[in-house]
């Protein structure tokens, strides 16, 4: 690495490293950056951080202003709506000046049916204080937070580096004592047996794939723990949970396209798992216990999924309950004693369908806004006639309702406060449609101030993701107001590869159809210009993780369409990563991207769109890449290599790399640190858009 001057960026050294596949030999001159134990690697990342700080020093005042705007609009001392479970109301509260949530409960008072208010918390018991646990650490995250069925024990796990490897502990909620039981190296999730004598958890293999389910006996050392299930197929992840009925422990094994589920009666935790249905390539299913049956949500001969059931005593054939309806994607099913609630999506919007027990009659909940997101929120109680839902739109802050499933009445329990005089009527949301090169219509969700011009003069930010059938549905953001109030139009491109328009939408944006994701996004950018929302010199694109791949691809595909690009933890070196099965999670990704080791066609196709492989001497827009040293999902070296090659091949561009040296895939963990990170991105965006002085 050459030492930069005050105004020049660092230059990464080049070293010969060749790869050969399918007769194609490629030189990767920055492959050495994968070694984070190499002092030269750390020195390069730190030099890039220093350059980024110098290059954005003029924005420090704006960053502080935006951070304070987010802070002033947020009710820092706040309380989630308490959820009832057994004899307690459970909730999380935050306190002004503290980074993390405080998990609490209070006893249910005799005759009490409504959740207690923030001002009325007699008998509060603090179960876990994230601030106390995080003291002295730059990073903190919980992997599981799981109260036993009897309410006496809490299983929780902590990560202090961001690598998503947790240490599991058990707390006696009657005495406050943390037991000597301690299990390092666990993954997400856990599940208690009915008598709270056993705790189930998962661990990962060398590729960081959750592959084992263990049973821990409370009060015994971890060395006595028993492997309950092990998944040898490297394409599959395992997980464990407890049904809402608390009758069954569920062990699921899933690849990107295939599922297999086993259950153990919660009152006999040492029993052998019972298989619901053997895995069948390409068939995905999940189960939910409901009385005498298991509800089975599946895609066998049902692209957008159907709902069936099988016997809970002797699982076998599936009996149809809701047939497949093309265009209505059934996403999940939640069972209660007398009702079933199905989460679904149709025409690019989420929805909830309610069925009575033993009946095929149903109704769909209705909502007034043209764009919104809705879903179930918590609902730990099985024997209930009401459910809690979350609702938001691009102008309506996050809202919590309790819905009576019989009368269909809705009670608003809380709407996220937005301080400082926020008026939803000052903003409007819109649905536009772009036309992709193959004629497919692609939805775009837009929000702007009512006075935003429609003559192409407004600055705009276009966000996209487009992978894993993950949908970016319309949502509310306090931080986004700092853009909107400076005249910026905010848009979400619902590109293929996501799940916004059903399973086919996903299928048409993966494997050998992945390019549709990128061309859809460019079409959305062009539609915003055509409809007068903005112009190319006033448009910034933003995406993260697999959406960062999208950012890198459109930088090569249509650099003239954007003034700037924000790529967060970006998957910009996909071919080299997917070619290396020793890297974390590579094998599990082959069903999403293809296997370029075995297939010359996949190799050539991935090489044709890989951002790193296709850096050229182009006039790129300004680019900000952000990553984390301890990220185990998209390794830091991908954006580091990308920026280094951009500088070498297209030196006239303005490229910045910012690396969090003590965080993981999600970036900084504390809320104030996260706000500072967002303020950094928004200030840079406004600078690109010429709005830094507003």
UniProtKB/TrEMBL annotation:
Domain Peptidase S9A N-terminal: from-to ranges: 9-412
Signal peptide boundaries: none
InterPro entries: AB_hydrolase_fold, Pept_S9A_N, Peptidase_S9_cat, Peptidase_S9A, Serine_Peptidase_S9A
Keyword line: Hydrolase, Protease, Serine protease
Gene3D superfamilies assigned: alpha/beta hydrolase, Prolyl oligopeptidase, N-terminal domain
Secreted keyword on record: no
Region: Disordered, residue numbers: 1-24
Pfam families registered for this protein in UniProt: Peptidase_S9 (PF00326), Peptidase_S9_N (PF02897)
Residue ranges with Polar residues bias: 1-15
Transmembrane residue ranges: none
Every Peptidase S9 prolyl oligopeptidase catalytic domain range: 475-690
Keyword Mitochondrion: no
The family this protein is said to belong to: Belongs to the peptidase S9A family.
Protein name: S9 family peptidase
């Amino acid at each position: 690495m050459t030492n930069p001057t005050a105004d020049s960026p660092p230059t990464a050294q080049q070293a010969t490293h060749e790869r050969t596949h399918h007769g194609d030999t490629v030189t990767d001159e920055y492959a050495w950056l994968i070694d984070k134990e190499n002092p030269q690697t750390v020195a390069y990342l730190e030099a890039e951080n220093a350059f980024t700080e110098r290059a954005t020093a003029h924005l420090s005042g704006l960053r502080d202003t935006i951070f304070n705007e987010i802070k002033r609009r947020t009710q820092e001392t706040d309380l989630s709506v308490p959820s009832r479970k057994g004899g307690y109301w459970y909730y999380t509260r935050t306190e002004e000046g503290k980074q993390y949530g405080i998990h609490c409960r209070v006893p249910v008072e005799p005759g009490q049916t409504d959740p207690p208010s923030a001002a009325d918390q007699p008998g509060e018991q603090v179960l876990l204080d994230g601030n106390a646990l995080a003291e002295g650490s730059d990073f903190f995250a919980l992997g599981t937070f799981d109260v036993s069925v009897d309410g006496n024990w809490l299983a929780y796990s902590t990560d202090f580096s961001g690598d998503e490897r947790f240490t599991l502990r058990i707390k006696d909620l009657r005495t406050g004592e943390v037991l000597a039981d301690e299990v390092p190296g666990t993954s997400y999730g856990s599940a208690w047996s009915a008598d709270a004598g056993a705790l189930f958890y998962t661990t990962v293999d060398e590729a960081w794939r959750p592959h084992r389910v263990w049973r821990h006996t409370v009060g015994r050392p971890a060395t006595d723990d028993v492997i309950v299930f092990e998944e040898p197929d490297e394409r599959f992840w395992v997980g464990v949970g407890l049904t809402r009925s608390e009758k069954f422990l569920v062990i699921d094994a899933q690849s990107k396209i295939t599922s297999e589920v086993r259950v153990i009666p919660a009152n006999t935790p040492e029993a052998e798992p019972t298989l619901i249905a053997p895995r069948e390539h390409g068939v995905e299913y999940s189960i939910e216990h409901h009385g005498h049956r298991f509800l089975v949500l599946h895609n066998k001969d049902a692209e957008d999924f159907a709902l069936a059931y099988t016997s809970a005593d002797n699982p076998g054939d599936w009996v149809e309950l809701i047939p497949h309806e093309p265009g209505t994607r059934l996403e999940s099913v939640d069972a209660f004693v007398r009702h079933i609630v199905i989460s679904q999506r149709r025409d690019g919007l989420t929805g909830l369908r309610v069925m009575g027990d033993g009946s095929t009659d149903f109704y769909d909940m209705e909502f007034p806004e043209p764009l919104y997101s809705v879903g179930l929120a918590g609902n730990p109680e099985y024997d209930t006639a009401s459910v809690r839902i979350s609702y938001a739109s691009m102008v309506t802050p996050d809202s919590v309702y309790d819905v009576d499933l019989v009368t269909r009445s809705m009670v608003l329990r809380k709407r996220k406060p937005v301080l400082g005089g926020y008026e939803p009527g000052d903003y409007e949301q819109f649905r536009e449609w772009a036309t992709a090169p193959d004629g497919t219509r692609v939805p775009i969700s837009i929000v702007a101030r009512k006075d935003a011009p429609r003559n192409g003069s407004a600055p705009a930010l276009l966000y996209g993701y487009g992978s894993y059938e993950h949908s970016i549905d319309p949502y509310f953001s306090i931080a986004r107001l700092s853009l909107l109030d400076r005249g910026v139009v905010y848009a979400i491109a619902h590109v293929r590869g996501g799940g916004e328009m059903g399973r086919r939408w996903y299928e048409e944006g993966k494997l050998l159809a992945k390019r549709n994701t990128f061309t859809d996004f460019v079409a959305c950018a062009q539609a915003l210009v055509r409809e007068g929302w903005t112009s190319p010199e006033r448009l910034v694109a933003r995406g993260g993780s697999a959406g960062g791949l999208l950012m890198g691809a459109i930088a090569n595909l249509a650099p003239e369409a954007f003034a700037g690009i924000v790529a967060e933890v970006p998957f910009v070196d996909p071919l080299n990563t997917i070619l290396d099965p020793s890297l974390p999670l590579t094998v599990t990704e082959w069903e999403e991207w293809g296997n370029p080791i075995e297939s010359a066609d996949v190799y050539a196709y991935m090489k044709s769109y890989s951002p790193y492989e296709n850096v050229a001497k182009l006039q790129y827009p300004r680019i900000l890449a952000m990553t984390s040293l301890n990220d185990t999902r998209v390794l830091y070296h991908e954006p580091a290599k990308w920026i280094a090659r951009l500088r070498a091949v297209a030196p006239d561009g303005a490229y910045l790399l910012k690396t969090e040296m003590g965080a993981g895939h999600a970036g900084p963990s504390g809320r104030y640190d996260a706000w500072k990170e967002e303020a950094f991105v928004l200030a840079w965006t406004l600078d690109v858009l010429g709005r830094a002085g507003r």
